[in-house]
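Duplicate of earlier report; Long-chain fatty acid transport protein input re-posted below.
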Amino acid sequence: MKQTYRTLVVALAVYTPCTAFATNGYQLIGVGAYQKSLGGAVTANPGSAMTAVTNPAGMARIGNRADFSMEAFMPEREAGFSATGGDTAESAVDIYGVPAIGWTAPVSEQNRDVYFGGGMYGTSGMGVDYAPTLMMAAHPDNGLPVYWDGYSNISFWQMAPTLAWNQNERLSLGVSLNIDYQSVAFRQRATQDTTSDGMGDTTVSNFDLGRSTSSFGFGLSLGMMYDLTESIDLGFAYKSRQEFSDLEYQLAQGDITDQSGNPLPAGTYKLDLDYPQQASLGIAYQATPALTVSADLKWIDWSDTMDKLAVEGPGVTVPMDPGWDDQTVYAVGLAYAVNNQLNLRAGYNYAKSPFGSEKVSSNLLLPAVVEHHYTIGGDYRFNQHWELAAHYMYAPEETFTAPDDDPIAPGAEIKLGETSFGLNVGYRF
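Output:
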């Protein structure tokens, strides 16, 4: 029994992935106030220069403009261990700033059917900061109380220089080069209370990649928009897998421990973390001169990048294996023009969590469990050049619980709820 207890402790600490993401997996449902306010249903209804990262063809449809966006993204996350006599950990980090900037304009006065633009976009990224928390109460068979703490900080940026053109009066095409940057730091450990003072003092296991490292990645996005009728627009977009160089960490001996809690050697450790390919179909219907209804269907290939993950070191492999499945995203948006200056919008976005309760123990710090997103927003045009847009998003809290017979973390819980608020300043040339 004592050995089983120790194995459970080490498995909890070592084989729990150490990053925290949210929304559609770890991808935001939209970039900027316009996209968020429509619930991400923008493949056939672009509206802002953020379309470079969702449908490049939209850059030829929105006119000459620049957009400057800032979003306050506010998740609430918990990891609970009551089933093993422990407590609940609440993340101390509860707000993240997500900036974005983009523009588009014709390549020349003589050729106003060909547009060039792009920008820098924060499309995902998050983190957690859990203080030492009782993970497992003392076991009757000489088991000692175990405490757990964890930290992560992830940033993902995407540049998207884009060329888009109107092939004819109905068809627009676009292509963007994705230049990606990600920065990742995370750390967690489990400690035992050997002095019975209510604090962990002896390290049982460690997984310390706390010194932030970064890598660059590349990919392509293709887009198309087609006017089926005067009131119905269709859109299609495809983004390739974003291939990153390995994240490299220079670790000391014992920064990572093995399954038995033994320190692994010092050296260079690498994590291969790419961004998944995805495709979307969209439709926009102008029901009346003032009301437009848009809808999107999107596929995200998480199983290709987030099913199996491992940190590779000098002669050793430490598996993380979050076991994510692909996601199908459904989005719908309503836009209503009150007058020539004021536009109101609302949206809904749904995607089933990329993992189920059977994978909770592998995703204690990957709480990507929110599924429903409700959004509102609008914009006000001050004159022919300047406009201000805003959005508010609410994703109700979801709770996933590991099975009682889970071999790693029986009965463990993860919780996630989200809100966000953003502003966008738009300028029309």
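The chain has a mean pLDDT of 91.

Merging into the original ticket.
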